[in-house]
Amino acid sequence: MVSKLEIKTRCGFVAIVGRPNVGKSTLMNHLIGQKVSITSRKPQTTQHRVNGVLIKGNCQYVFVDTPGFQKRYINKLNTLLNQSVINSLATVDVVLFVVEAGIFNAGDAEILAVLPQNKNVILVANKQDKLKNKYDLADYLKQLGSKFTFKHELSVSAKHNLGLDDILSSIAPCLPESEFLYPDEQLTDKSSAFLVSEIIREKLFRYLGEELPYSLAVEVNEFKVEEGLTRISATIFVDKTNQKGIVIGKNGEKLKKISSEARIDMEKLLMTKVFLQVWVKVKSGFADEAKFLKQFET
Ligand code: GDP
Ligand code: MG
Fold it and tell me: Which residue range is the domain that position 38 belongs to?
């Protein structure tokens, strides 16, 4: 009798949760080694679930980058975004609870309160590079560890690629034995059109004020692959007429900057030349409109 040597594979879903700005998107991008989710200094730039996929050894990690959970600007959109964080916690195998090393504020406490007790939750204290006194770190982790039963408590620096292998090896045993669910080359299960709209949103967050981007939306109207060129047309929806002026800027300078930086990122992502047109349209009250909100439900 010939016995076949089988190598068991594991595959599962990992949610990355934490208050805005702790570095969730940076962490996912650096874990995967590619830029799939947008990052910005402004909170809550990720509106949708982006699944980044990583294969390492016999494991396939499927990361879910959640929108920031925040209660500062409450409208129907943000209520739905918060709900989607809670939903993703219920459907994953492992939860990475990301905090900023040395800090634990009301925003962190809100998330801690919704962490599932019956799941593998790993505490990730990010931005350890910002912490001056390294001795405080152990104390900090111990204090947080008394608030919740974490599977592991890790400190890392996503931006500087420190401690990321520890995260992966802590996750691995928690993933169920399973075939790989995604093909090798698949970077993300969202369509390119979606990634393109996220790139535009990232630029909006980068170049507009603190609050305005919360009442903007981006829709990709055309995504056409031609020989050596991708033709993309997108619309930025604003809530009020005066916001349109702010987005476009004096002599169209702001929109030009947003578009041209977005185009450069798209060319890197798609590895083709990109012809990009961006429009700005006023659509009053859309941020509370049921039909518009539907697309954010998961
Ligand atoms: P998110 O809102 O949680 O997704 O946070 P982002 O990934 O968008 O990151 C927010 C900001 O924190 C960005 O300016 C990142 O460059 C920065 N950041 C992320 N990780 C680190 C880190 O390890 N060290 C430092 N110093 N900054 C970081
Ligand atoms: Mg993010």
Answer: 4-174
